[in-house]
Amino acid sequence: MRLRLLLLSLLALALSSCTVYLRSGDLTISFKTRFGVELSPVITRFDPDRGTGGVYRVGESISFIINLTQPGYVTLVGIDPDGRTYEFDRMFLREGTHVLSGPPGQRYLLTPPVGTERVRAIYTNTPPSTTVGFNAVYKDDGWDRQIALFFEQSRSQIRDVAETYFYIYR
Questions:
Q1: 3-state secondary structure of 137
Q2: Residue 41: cis peptide before it, omega within 30 degrees of 0
Q3: Contacts with 6 (C-beta within 8 Å, 6 or more apart), sequence order
Q4: Residue 128 resides in a domain
Q5: b/e per residue, 76-97, with b = 16+ CB within 10 A?
């Protein structure tokens, strides 16, 4: 009995330091607190073409696979390993699965700095505001506050966010 209690205590201690990652369909609860707005589960998949955590070289192109449960506007925002945040595409998409590889006649080409690159797909059911952008270096939760402001300015009733990441090396 004591051994079982000791093992359960050790397991609880080990699990208390774990980080739990949620898929985009489960993000409504965690992002509600994070952005201060209620999100709808519209983005059911958002991944780089080599999968989340994929590895790419500088100069290669990348595509993203996104699945939406309803039509709307998607804004793609990246954050470099050095903390620089930038918006790199906005588009209207119908419901279903899409492969996003860049505007017509262009591609998403990867440039330095090398390291972990995070990308968020931001969904709204109304056209996004042109007055709120993402070209800055944000401290702490500044990126999240900027997304909350983006939602507020869009006056969208239905909104969602999905995040993915990949690695860039030379």
A1: strand
A2: no
A3: none
A4: yes
A5: bbbbbeeeebebebeeebeeee
Overall number of domains in the chain:
1
Pairing of strands 84-93, 61-62: unpaired
Contact 77, 86 (CB under 8 A): yes
Residue 18 placed within a domain: no
Domain presence at residue 82: yes
pTM of full prediction above 0.85: no
Helix (H, G, I), strand (E, B) or coil at 57: strand
Q: What is the DSSP letter of 70?
A: S
Contact 93, 86 (CB under 8 A): no
CATH number of 129's domain = 2.60.40.1930
Q: How far apart are CA 11 and CA 20, in angstroms?
A: 16
d(CA 47, CA 164): 6
User: What pLDDT, in 10s, does the model give residues 17-75?
Assistant: 333 334 444 443 334 445 666 788 999 999 999 999 999 999 999 999 999 999 999 99
Q: Which domain holds residue 155?
A: 23-169
Chain-centre distance for alpha carbon 169: 20
Q: Please report the pLDDT score of residue 2 as a whole number.
A: 53
